[in-house]
Amino acid sequence: MFISHIYGAFQTIRKTDAILQLAALAGDFLLFRAFSAAGSLENTEVVSLLATALNNLVTGELMQMTVTPAQRCSMDYYLQKTYYKTAALISNSCKAVAVLSGQTAEVAGLAYQYGRHLGIAYQLTTIPCHSDRV
C-alpha cells in the first residue's frame, strides 16, 4: 500500500515535470518565432528593443526570486522590479511600433514613456492580488 502511494506520487511529479518542460519549450518556440519575425523586418533597432525587453523580463524575474525582506518593503525596489517585469515589454513595444511607423525619435521616446507609465499603472492596480509577492 505504501509503495503504491509513493509510485502514484512519483507519477504525478513526473507528469508535472513533463508539463513544465513542455510549457518552457512552447515559450522558447514562441520567443524564437517572434525574433524570426522581427528579424524579417530588417530593422535592427526594433530587434534591439525586443532583446532589451526580454533581458528586462529575465532581470525582473530574478529580482522577484532573490528579493530580501528589506527590499520587499521598498517602494523603489517594487517599482524597479515592476518596470522590468511588466512595463519594459510594454514600453519597448510601444517604441518599436513608433519606430516601425516612421515616427521621429522624439515621438518614439514619448511612446516609450507612455508604455512605461501604462505598464507600471497596470501593475499598481493589481497590488491587492499580489500582496504576498510584492
TrEMBL record:
Database matches in InterPro entries: Isoprenoid_synthase_dom_sf, Polyprenyl_synt
Record GO biological process: isoprenoid biosynthetic process; ubiquinone biosynthetic process
GO cellular component, one term: transferase complex
Taxonomic classification: Eukaryota, Viridiplantae, Streptophyta, Embryophyta, Tracheophyta
Family from the record: Belongs to the FPP/GGPP synthase family.
A GO molecular function held by the record: prenyltransferase activity
SUPFAM superfamilies: Terpenoid synthases
Gene3D superfamilies associated with the record: Farnesyl Diphosphate Synthase (1.10.600.10)
Protein name (database record): Uncharacterized protein
